[in-house]
Batch of 2 targets.
Target 1
Amino acid sequence: MQHFQQSVYQLIVETSTNLPADVRRAIQKAREQEDQGTRSALSLSTIANNIEMAECNVSPICQDTGMPTFIVHTPIGANQIVMRKHILEAVAQSTKDAKLRTNSVDSLTGANTGDNLGPGTPVIHFEQWERDDIEVKLILKGGGCENKNIQYSLPAELEGVGKAGRDLDGIRKCIMHAVYQAQGQGCSAGFIGVGIGGDRTTGYELAKHQLFRKVEDVNPNEDLAKLEDYVMENANKLGIGTMGFGGQVTLLGCKVGVMNRLPASFFVSVAYNCWAFRRQGVLIDAGSGEITNWVYERGSDLPMKQDAPAAEDSERREVVLTAPISEEQIRSLKVGDIVIINGMMHTGRDALHKYLMDHDSPVDLNGGVIYHCGPVMAKDASGEWHVKAAGPTTSIREEPYQGDIIKKFGIRAVIGKGGMGAKTLAALQEHGAVYLNAIGGAAQYYAECFKKVESVDLMEFGIPEAMWHLQTEGFAAIVTMDSHGNSLHADVEKDSLGKLATFKEPVFK
Ligand SMILES: O=C(O)C[C@H](O)C(=O)O
Ligand code: SF4
């Protein structure tokens, strides 16, 4: 077992930096289905580029490397205590090497352990099997899509689709609703794992286990196979599209599992996974600890097709802005414009927004740009910081604070993903600011725009939550909420709710 730790390390690096071939094929297919030249199609091209960049840079596809969750099958009699120790060491090492973000945070104090180890993290499940080798599977599921998981207790009355009973048709309605409620916030197009039955805990566990199925497999249960096909065909009619920009492809995969339940309970649990569907596995020789095979076809076998330059779209304006930005420049922007940002950008997410409510900002934010982002950073030998992965985080979490902070500090642009709510929209209008949607998960693509790390404040919040001051060049994002009261997110949500309602009539009797 000399090489076991190194094998697990290799698995972590591969999972974080190289999407497997079945996931790549699903994304490739989505690109073929999406209308060319639309916002969703352009975003899918960026996603495809980002996948290639991550593989080439051996750096995280998305900065949120999620909750590392291992499922380990061992031969009878194998020493699981030693294996656990090696897995923890491999996790700490890959964090140190910036292959994983420092993602383990004390829930009460907010302190980041800095090595991804702590109570409950990582998650390791051991199971024995009657084979001589070891199998280690790993999923890195990010927090943003985890927040879009949902559990239904049937019977229920659901927005859009109405009554959902304790039968296959009720389950169908739950799944359609689950895709709708995620909107673009979990970085659609996504994959869903569904668990029918169990209790609240095992239902979710079953749902997550479905994510380990290969994208192209067929459910052995005929009813569930039909349900999966139905969802794959119809969820895309909701029109949510990539990142919630509207479009033809909203869902890339649907896998449903079933287990028994208690007479009183009927749970339908849905695990939503973003397009950055990072899961891989290895078979390991129990004697040497060396990898003998990969469980999922590796991504390197299927390069993502690169696009010819996108066709000119006369409807879409491209505006270059250098921070600090004036109110006049902002007022001239409208939903749909592409903005290219140069100059200084400041990261800020959950801890910073709460902090700024009753503290001064460490730097002048007048005319400034706030980026909802928790990057992966690495320090070189000379002590200089470098951005290793830096896509946007889900902005809606800052909704309680954002409007007040924009006005208090004179911020002109907020960049994030998934959109924000009515309070922020009103503040954008009142103060003269915009919300720009960046492409979630495109962490390598955006990291390249940060030419220099100027400085950092509030490091006591930990690397992802600190306020990084970044010299930026050519950061492209789309205006999805402008200073005239328009919100693409509100429009897509309303439109998709209307579409959801068309799935109200029974299908499985
Ligand atoms: O934590 C992050 O950086 C992103 C998160 O996964 C999100 O989708 O909001
Ligand atoms: S930012 Fe998007 S792609 Fe990255 S983990 Fe979160 S949901 Fe997934």
Target 2
Amino acid sequence: MNFHDIIYKKEKGIATIAINRPEVMNAFRAETIHEMISAFEDAWIDREIGVVVVTGTGEKAFCTGGDQKSKDMGGYSGTSRSDIGLDVEDLHMIIRRIPKPVIAAVNGYAIGGGHVIHVVCDLTIASEKAIFGQVGPKFGSVDPGFGTAYLARVVGEKKAREIWYLCKQYTATEAEKMGLVNKVVPHEKLLEETYQWCEEILDKSPTALKVAKYSINADSSNIEGISQLGMSALALYYDTLESKEGYESFLQKRPANFRKFRKRKN
Ligand SMILES: CC(C)(COP(=O)(O)OP(=O)(O)OC[C@H]1O[C@@H](n2cnc3c(N)ncnc32)[C@H](O)[C@@H]1OP(=O)(O)O)[C@@H](O)C(=O)NCCC(=O)NCCSC(=O)c1cc(O)c2ccccc2c1O
């Protein structure tokens, strides 16, 4: 398979998808999401694959969300089914629907939509250098559905609200404490530890794993509907000056002025 934005490899029952756009801290554009979905489809169909690993190339980032350099009023450029210009919802759904465990190996920044990708994965192993956080309200975006409602299931509502309302960054140790990651390991041991977890999973019954995954998913499957509704609202939000102020402030490396959008309408 020929990919440009990701590196996809399969070895000894393990499929690895590495987002490969280090020049933008592994931010994703429409093509990146489509390539990831194709790789997941291949890993799903291939009966020899028992587990999928998602990671990022380079030393700095796992993924920093939507590529702000491919964004304009109305959303991201690129061909997509979604009005937003990114088929992120479809990526979240295939991570949940593939009947095999998906492990995020977080090697650096997991920010914005990149943070949501690791949240949706079944398990997360983090380098001690990893940094976690949501940035939407700081940069004119929000990731409703799995990024909000499902995050609240993982870390609890109070913590999820803090993550979204304050847009702070959290260390790997802080993330582990709040149940956001399964294990923190020295940076150079990240893939070794992740593949060790994969080996343990490969020793287990694939059918039992599939039923375990689907039965855990079933309890939060209503979030798919929240996601659809929320993403429709997001498409409208992206068409506003308020959202534009956010992503322009990021690109212009200046603080956003959202206070002006709190003025009373006369
Ligand atoms: C990750 C950071 C905290 C790092 O900060 P730092 O100060 O160390 O480095 P720089 O900010 O200078 O970044 C270095 C270099 O990388 C470029 N870059 C980083 N992230 C992105 C990005 N997402 N898009 C494009 N480019 C990026 C940066 O511009 C610099 O390049 P230079 O050329 O100037 O050297 C910090 O970078 C950071 O906070 N990044 C994230 C910014 C962001 O806005 N992310 C997206 C949020 S919205 C989103 O992710 C999103 C998710 C979804 O699931 C969606 C679903 C459906 C629709 C839309 C969605 C969506 O928008």
